[in-house]
Specification:
- This protein is α/β, with parallel strands linked by helices.
- It has one domain: Glycogen Phosphorylase B (Rossmann fold, 3-Layer(aba) Sandwich).
- About 50% of the residues lie in helices and about 10% in strands.
- Strands 3-2-1-4-5-6 form a 6-stranded parallel β-sheet, with helices on both faces.
- The longest helix is centred in the last third of the chain and has 20 residues.
């Protein structure tokens, strides 16, 4: 594990399983108002967090996209970084207790590989179906969205974070189910058998 990275050093100072890792990918950056709702939601939830934030499109590099005073109020239990983050290293860290993700395929697999319960905020493409599947398996919760325009607000955001990260009764269920899926995701022999069976099935079509 690379201890020279600032995010890893910050995690080193946090208690075990105490921090939410927040990363929504880089392909569809959020709007400034969405960043503000997320920030206020994280603050309301009260959980420690490491947030890999991608700046919204069209925003000057020197503009502070976070709500005024947010970093001062969350200093000590939250870290926001807009640079590169070693995601696999972060997810493997003992201080991380949940993963707030857009549910892109790669990020979803990485989160489950380390047995993390999920807080899900799908944005586009296959992320919505992925999130619904994970919610159905009780691995975590989606952030509530407005049915008409798909928007979310800080209260719903905070509620989802608390349910997965803070409230013991619900967290226990999500952690248990995430650990079950971890066994499947990490089973290389199982995956190789699936591939072999798939190849055999394809061959049967060409020889029939």
């Amino acid at each position: 594990m690379n201890r020279d990275d600032a995010t890893v050093r910050w995690l080193d100072a946090q208690p075990p399983k105490s921090a939410v890792y927040v990363a929504l990918g880089s392909e569809v950056p959020l709007r400034v108002e969405q960043v503000h709702e997320m920030a206020q939601g994280l603050e309301m939830a009260g959980a420690r967090f490491l947030w890999a934030l991608r700046p919204p499109r069209g925003v000057p590099d020197d503009m502070d996209v976070l709500p005024p005073g947010f970093q001062e109020r969350t200093h000590g239990h939250g870290l926001v970084t807009m640079g590169w983050v070693p995601q696999n290293t972060v997810l493997a860290h003992g201080a991380v207790g949940a993963f707030l993700t857009h549910c892109g395929r790669s990020s979803l697999i990485e989160g489950l590989l380390y047995g993390h319960p999920l807080i899900m905020l799908p944005i586009s493409g296959d992320q919505g179906p992925n999130a619904r599947l994970m919610e159905g398996r009780k691995v975590g919760l989606q952030v509530p969205r407005d049915e008409d325009d798909g928007s979310f607000n800080r209260k719903g955001f905070a509620k989802a974070v608390r349910a997965v990260m803070v409230e013991e009764d619900t967290r226990r269920v999500f952690v248990k189910n995430a650990m079950k899926l971890q066994e499947v995701v990490a089973d290389k022999e199982l995956h190789e058998r699936y591939i072999d069976e798939f190849v055999q099935q394809l061959r049967s079509y060409t020889t029939s």
